[in-house]
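Worked Example 4.2. Consider the chain below.
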Amino acid sequence: MRYSGLRVIKEALTGHKGWRPAWRDPEPKKSYDVVIIGGGGHGLATAYYLSKVHKITNVAVIEKGYIGGGNVGRNTTIIRSNYLLDGNEPFYELSLKLWEGLEQDFNYNAMVSQRGILNLVHTDAQRDAARRRGNAMILNGSDAELLDANGVRAMYPFLNFDNARFPIKGGLLHRRGGTVRHDAVAWGYARGADMRGVDIIQNCEVTGFKIENGKCLGVETTKGFIGAKKVASCVAGSSSRVMEKAGMRLPIESHVLQAFVSEGLKPVLDGVITFGAGHFYCSQSDKGGLVFGGDLDMYNSYAQRGNLPVVEDVMEGGMALIPAIGRVRMLRSWGGIMDMSMDGSPFIDKTHIDGLYFNGGWCYGGFKATPASGWCYAHLLATDKPHEVATAYRLDRFRTGHMIDEKGVGPNPNLH
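Applying the procedure from the previous section yields the following structure tokens:
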């Protein structure tokens, strides 16, 4: 069943009796060609591109909870390709290009809104760094504009330009960046994969791996053993716990990242802005709420909730940048579990166990990477070769000295 304006009109005139569930709820088969652990955005995107691009449809996506209940529904919805280093920028530019055609590709309204992202600068050194980043972006096919203070003022006159400590001197504008409705991404990919024969198995937790003679033969789950020629882990903040069941220790630690939504307001912020003198970023949802976030809670945790010191820090950053939000009431907050790598960059790679693959370590970049992560992971699973824009995302890069140090956000972010 394809969605369209005519279909909506037809269903409205006939009592909405023709709609069907967006995807099936099947019981697992005894074995599959590929089993994907994790029904978040990356896992579902991988299944979708495996079935659509590589025609591999005997695939199962195993999710311990429900679709949309993990990090894919627990983020601040931002998409962008404003990275600096060669190992990352081409990958995120591919992701942004996939975002731009995503809704037409999987026939689902994910509310992709390229409203622009503005990274503010407050010192001459930050301006130099922004100029360097912008040039790197342009060299890799992305877009970037360096604005002076008057250019920023024309866009957002309500910012605190004359703050004695953090005067706004300009900003790096990435017009193709923006926001996407997060859980709709999961639903769209799930529906698209299901239409092509992929089994999406919810409320099914992986409890172990069956490994014999160095080869992974499948996974033990709460619904029994499921055999597989290839097993692909894709579980974000739970990566360390899941891969530990296969005897692997990863260069990853899990931390909580909080996000916040205010009460609904009239339209005031049409893009995304980030504070250059502190970790604060903000946009406005279609419902009117200001959506904002900041730093990690600086301790290891698998909990989907945060603590008050970071709440205070984020609010301070917001007040320093936009004093008017001091009159706005916060509606709710939540937390997602970030799988923080030691150099701030992810992994898409085969493991040393034959038939077992790993995708993780996305740090702050997981949601915006969803399409390219699925595209490149599907390519790896189908061909056993890394995609050309993901060759740097090796599991052994710390041992071999090939780090991609975009930003040190490992176990001690305060030291980087």
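The mean pLDDT is 94. The CA atoms of residues 311 and 323 lie 16 Å apart. Compare this with Example 4.1 before moving on.
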